[in-house]
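Slide 14.
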Amino acid sequence: MKKLIFICLVFISAKHLAQCTATITPISQSVVCAGGTVSFTAASTGSNNLNYYWYSPLNPFPAGVPIYTSTGLTSVFSGSLAPGNYTVISKNLGNTCTDSVSFMVTSLNQYPTYSMNSSTNYSVGCSPLNQTTLSIINPVSTQTPASTCSFTFLPPGFGGTLAAGPYGGSTNTITTLPGTWTVVVHDNTNFCKTILPVMVSQNTVSPNVSI
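Slide 15: predicted structure.
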């Protein structure tokens, strides 16, 4: 009796073998209310066709919106960041491989906390959705005893000098301007400022008209 031997060949696409590992440098930095900035660099293996999405503890991943995005082999994010646990997501645009890594901003000072909301999910489009309301939600002074807070919204492209504060009492602003807004919550007693970049996208498509 003849024996039949079947050889199975399994072809695995290189696309499915691809791996991407995100890294962050440094893993932690400290800030003080007196000012100064911190800087973090994210990188990922596998390709230079990468998108990076940075999330803050005020609007955390996955429910929040990123406070900064960039494309390239590496991504640098810096600024006057409030204390908390941040996350950066790397996504390979060629094979959709994604990875995440967290990093910390620490401080001995008591920064105010809050979250953000937008009436149009952080986008502006054609009328009647050509404007959005940016809202500071539940601002809290974390020092003991708690203080009052004041607020300001800096528009995209703001090139001036941020005033020392206190600021105004309104926790909302209505805008038609897309771009990166800067939201500032200021503790009126210890003068700590929690600063959050907020991206408003432009969601418009020109009509296709033919005659």
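Speaker note: The radius of gyration is 22 Å.
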